[in-house]
Design brief:
binds fe (ii) ion, about 15% helix, eight-stranded mixed beta sheet, AlkB-like, binds 2-oxoglutaric acid, alpha+beta, about 400 residues, 8 helices, Jelly Rolls, 2 domains
């Protein structure tokens, strides 16, 4: 019998109702008391709730699931089981993932985008890999920190998969500084998918009005919104389930090395509504995520309020932070440039957000896709290269000024 062929290690997941899904009270009404799945609070009052239970199973050739150790129908010598599941030399040489043959397609995608490889999908059944810690000890801060959220077995593969399969852009745009127009070169690669609450994608990829279900009028958008490809939509749905939040936009940043960055900003545009929740994933190189409170204006009536101390989270591959409450309206965050050992490694950041109105859709496409060419990861070159047929792409970001998804320069 060839080793590792007869039994496959697979996961079985018992589901219980997840807040925010159809079988439960909507998160709008339950928001005040909802605790995301697997959240551990640092403040004693908040209780921890684990909403999902995972059970490891082995599947025998006839398809029978074998639950847990005791139920095992096979007897093996000590160590044999581990050897059994160890990849053979031939298997070990295989790439970390095999791209799925199924792909997401859309008229506004420059190329089809493969679905997640099945082993990655299976592993996403185990999220969050660690309970989230609530960081709310500082004034106006409300953040859940999952360290990590994505199981470590797939973080490297998922990073490579997304870097290789997504279309990226290096957006340039002009801003007015006084009477001068300045060109801004976004100091990182970006891409975006989704549409605001006023519209939704029909199964054929066309846009229909959310309320009437009828095709939208031609002039609703000057940009061309595109649906979130299946590979990112899987993660979006799972994130909604564990956080109780709803998301309709996915923004992706690729920091090629330590020179790529995002300057201090907050994601509190009006089109996100008050107290927006933003779920933010890290894959690849560890980078510092700096946070500082916005300046506090002295009040004429009350005593002076001390500014809370700045924070530094060293975000590792697979980590997720859920920023919520007043975090965006009162705090700023950034990923500064860095030198050193890790500085040559790339990092992917994925954020999920909920955009309420069409102005948000226009803004996100303008500043994360723009009007330049597509970049794709080139395995031979080991870097992003302008994708065939795109002559307007420009790899230079030297001396650029950071932008904030375009909203605060
Ligand atoms: O890369 C990160 O972790 C942060 C990205 C970010 O703040 C943004 O895209 O708004
Ligand atoms: Fe941000």
């Amino acid at each position: 019998m060839p080793r590792g062929r007869v039994f496959t290690n697979s996961v079985h997941r018992e589901r219980v109702p997840v807040p925010g899904s159809n079988n439960c009270v909507g998160h709008e009404t339950a928001a005040a008391v909802f605790v995301p799945a697997g959240v551990r609070s640092l403040t004693p009052k908040t209780s921890a709730v684990r909403l999902e239970r995972t059970v490891l199973t082995a599947v025998s050739p006839d398809g029978t699931r074998v639950f847990g150790k005791k139920a095992s129908p096979i007897k093996m010598k000590r160590g044999a089981l581990e050897a059994f599941f160890k990849p053979t030399a031939a298997q070990a040489k295989k790439p970390k993932y095999e791209a799925s043959l199924e792909k997401s397609t859309h008229a506004a995608y420059p190329h089809p985008i493969p679905h997640l490889p099945l082993p990655f999908k299976d592993q996403l059944g185990f999220v969050p890999a660690e309970d989230g810690k609530v960081l709310n000890q500082e004034l106006d801060l409300d953040l859940v920190y999952y360290q990590p959220y994505i199981p470590s077995a797939i973080t490297a593969g998922l990073f490579k998969f997304l870097r290789q399969e997504l279309p990226f852009y290096r957006v340039q745009y002009m801003i007015k500084r006084g009477t001068f127009e300045t060109q801004i070169n976004t100091p990182r690669y970006t891409t975006v998918f989704g549409v605001d609450e006023t519209s939704r994608f029909a199964p054929d990829g066309s846009l229909v009005d959310s309320k009437t279900g009828r095709p939208i009028e031609h002039r609703r958008y000057t940009c061309t919104p595109r649906p979130t490809p299946d590979c990112l939509d899987e993660l979006r749905k799972i994130t909604e389930g564990t956080t109780g939040e709803k998301f309709n936009f996915c923004l992706v940043n690729y920091y090629a090395d330590g020179q790529d960055s995002i300057s201090y900003h907050s994601d509190d545009e009006r089109f996100l509504g008050p107290n927006p929740a933003v779920a933010s994933f890290s894959l690849g190189a560890r980078r510092d995520f700096l946070m500082k409170h916005k300046p506090i204006a002295p009040s004429a009536s009350g005593p002076p309020v001390a500014e809370p101390k700045a924070l530094k989270l060293q975000l590792g591959s697979g980590d997720m932070i859920l920023m919520r409450g007043t975090t965006q309206s009162k705090w700023l965050h950034s990923i500064p440039k860095r030198a050193g050992v890790d500085a040559k490694m790339g990092r992917i950041n994925i954020t999920f957000r909920k955009v309420l109105v069409k102005g948000g859709t226009e803004n996100y496409y303008q500043y994360n896709v723009g009007s330049g060419g597509v970049f794709r990861w080139n395995v031979q070159a080991g870097k992003m290269v302008a994708w065939e047929g795109n002559s307007s792409a420009h790899p230079d970001d030297e001396g650029s000024v950071s932008n904030v998804n375009g909203n605060s320069g």
